[in-house]
Amino acid sequence: MAATRPTGGLRPTLTILIMGALTLLTLQYRGAEPLSAFQRGVRDVIEPLRTVTDRVVSPVRSVWNGLLDYDELRAENERLADELARMRGRRLTAEADGELLERLLSEVGIDFAELDTVVVRILGTPPGNFSTHMIEVDKGSDDGLAEGMPVVTGAGLVGRLESVDRARSVVRLAVHPEFRVGVRLVGSQDEGLARGGGRSGFLVIDAGVRADTVVEAGEVVVTSGGRSRFPADIPVGRVMDPGSGGDFQREILVDPSASLENLSFLNVLLVTEERTFDPLVLLDPGGRSR
Amino acid sequence: MTGRFRVLALLLTAAALQATVFDEVRIDGVSVEYLLLVSVLAGFHGGPERGATVAFLAGLLHDSVGSTPLGVHALVYAPMAAVAGHLSVRLADGARALALVGLTASVMVGVTAAAGVGALFGLHPVSGVDLVSTATIAALTTVVVAGPTSRVVRWAVTGGLPVDIDLNEGTSAERTFGR
After folding, report:
1. Do the Cβ atoms of A127 and B164 come within 8 Å?
2. Which pLDDT score, from 0 to 100, does residue A199 have?
3. Can you list the domains of chain A with their CATH numbers?
4. CB-CB neighbors (< 8 A) of A52 in chain B
5. pLDDT band at A64 (very low <50, low <70, confident <90, very high)
6. Nearest C-alpha of chain A: how many angstroms from B154?
């Protein structure tokens, strides 16, 4: 016969533990730096182990994926070959219409490529089962990265650095529901605020754009700069659904230009300075604030 | 080695495993909930009070190695361990299958509760069908590693001594998960 364990002290103990957890949560949401430092410290201690495990498991995983996903890989190879052929055709078309291309590029102004960047490798999702719309990359504060820095590919905006440890960082993707970025519609030059659309995979511009603004499907959307930490003119995507112009709550759906599919590397823009509001922008709304 | 050092060693090893091996080996993008397993087993072997304390620390470590705010998992794991401790006292002798079902259900409830708490505090964890799928896969994969983990957790949380003593056949946990 099993003797029952003494459980008389459970209620106060459990109450203290739950209150402790709630207190920690509250402190962290208020930005208590020691708690974040503690978390970073734990991750930094474990990081070498994670790197070793990654190196050991990676070849095995590649072989395993190769065995299981052979058909998928072959289909992917064929798809990429088709896409390459299409791209060659487009290049010829673009060369034939060089003048138009030059004008469009100057309009979009992809000068974010001139900023200092750090190339990072995608490691996968952060540990745990709750990190939706987040990815982990292989560089951190030792490489000059800091929280909030924009993350891009050659195609455009991917997201921003959410947390930065010494040797790893977590990127919040642009489609994350909590992601916000100031954007500008290249056609109308209207500026608005876009948020991540979550599982839909799109961004949604739901503030700032006037209801009577004419927005065309396919219109290019870029970052607006200004007070945002994102430099101006990073391509964000193309308008997929311009929404209803007569509706007070206008929502414009944007298809992101940067896709993470089949990508291994990203660029982090080394933008550290906090941008301040320039009142001259109000006098020259068409001018690009940086 | 004293009981506290055993628990410390257990938790640090479990956190390292959660962030390394179990983070790499994922099924459909879902990893084993190893620290949740340790929490439930700590309640099962160590009793509700001791289990809740160990589970609270396990939750804090889970929040640290992952990207969740400190306290989300601790808030869920401590009550889970307390419930597991209470249920283990009432578990019938030799109910190994029932214990495994209970463990599977515990992990599913723990994953779902952690997602719920995360949503309450402004996170955007998986939801709906994806959450059911995640909880199910996590529970099934976690139960696979429960056997060996159970022995280690029992060694750590009981300090080498049985918490409840069966004069004929040893502890109820030994009868369930083996010596």
Report:
1. no
2. 78
3. 36-96 (no CATH), 117-274 (2.40.10.340)
4. 20
5. confident
6. 15
